[in-house]
Design brief:
There is one protein chain. By secondary structure, the chain is of the alpha+beta class. The chain has helices at 55-69, 74-77, 79-82, 89-104, and strands at residues 6-18, 31-43, 111-119, 122-129. Strands 1-2-3-4 form a 4-stranded antiparallel β-sheet. Helix 1 crosses helix 4 (89-104).
């Protein structure tokens, strides 16, 4: 019996802009961060090819999401979808998860974790299960 989890991940860095309303400068003014987006797929068992997920699929999905964010104003790109006052690293990680999960597809017992680092030491994250493969009964 295996109680552990396997994981496969990748990362990319994007520069994006945002404002944190109500905070003093620089956070309260439009400013940029070099965000590092880390994504990890976890599952307890490997697939028939001995993988958690195809790393090429995961990498391309992350590149697709990163291309929407790089150089963008997060309040315009992400904020419209979230409907909140500010795009925090926690909300951005959930937004990235929502864009990646459909591209990764169904993985029995799998989850996708996203961490968005706004500095070398500060991050926010979001993790949720990936859909299971439908049974053919």
């Amino acid at each position: 019996m295996n109680d552990g989890m396997f994981e496969t991940g990748t990362a990319v860095t994007v520069r994006a802009f945002h404002v944190m309303p109500g905070l003093p400068p620089p956070e309260g003014e439009r400013h940029s961060h070099d965000y590092r987006l880390d994504v990890v797929v976890r599952r307890s068992d490997l697939d028939a090819q001995g993988m958690v997920v195809d790393l090429d699929v995961l990498t391309q999905a992350l590149k697709d999401v990163a291309s929407r964010l790089d150089g963008a104003d997060l309040d315009d790109v992400v904020g419209k979808d979230l409907g909140g006052d500010a795009v925090t690293v926690e909300l951005l990680s959930r937004w990235v998860h929502g864009r990646l999960a459909p591209q990764i597809g169904q993985i029995d017992g799998g989850s996708l974790a996203v961490r968005v680092w706004e500095s070398p030491v500060a991050f926010g994250g979001y993790e949720a299960p990936l859909p299971a493969v439908a049974s053919s009964s």
